[in-house]
Prior knowledge:
Blueprint: E1 6-11, H1 22-29, E2 33-36, H2 42-45, E3 53-56, H3 68-80, E4 84-89, H4 99-108, E5 112-116, H5 121-128, E6 142-146, H6 155-158, E7 163-167, H7 173-182, E8 190-195, E9 203-208, H8 212-215, E10 224-228, H9 235-238
Amino acid sequence: xxxxxxxxxxxxxxxxxxxxxxxxxxxxxxxxxxxxxxxxxxxxxxxxxxxxxxxxxxxxxxxxxxxxxxxxxxxxxxxxxxxxxxxxxxxxxxxxxxxxxxxxxxxxxxxxxxxxxxxxxxxxxxxxxxxxxxxxxxxxxxxxxxxxxxxxxxxxxxxxxxxxxxxxxxxxxxxxxxxxxxxxxxxxxxxxxxxxxxxxxxxxxxxxxxxxxxxxxxxxxxxxxxxxxxxxxxxxxxxx
Length: 240
């Protein structure tokens, strides 16, 4: 056991082992303890040594799960025990994650920590689907938003942007489309939904703001990235 504990807050990227950073891969293969989220690819978990203690602390909507305070205190306890801890988070640790809470808990008791960036699925999923987020003609800007809670968003402003990338939007797909149309987005605006980006079970649906809710009715969409904008129409020209 190490005499001095440290917590590494590591971004796992979109899921595929090949899309880990070199540093994240090195930390996983040498971890004493792994604390990971719900959507982590099992192949990433398999990278840790056989002696590594594993704690699955994922939070999934509508299911019994760890509270954020419990996770914070687990990290503190493990670090104070002198362990080298990899806290593995989907995508990038700070893109709609709760990394700030974990850092505050660690700092409050003097625990050492380090943040290791990861590729955000907001950027990677469109690319893997052949969709550019910017284009000299079709898109001079894009925004990344969460649809976990619709109320804080300025839908009138978002409807004016060339491209929207929506995270955590599977359950609220219909409401997202309705609000964008209500605030001036063309109903015919192309939409792509990418589920399990970068992983073998990746799925992609295409439609428009008007018909994508019906096209995907009855489908389990989570975890997904939703891309809204004319750039979705470039897919046929940019795929191998």
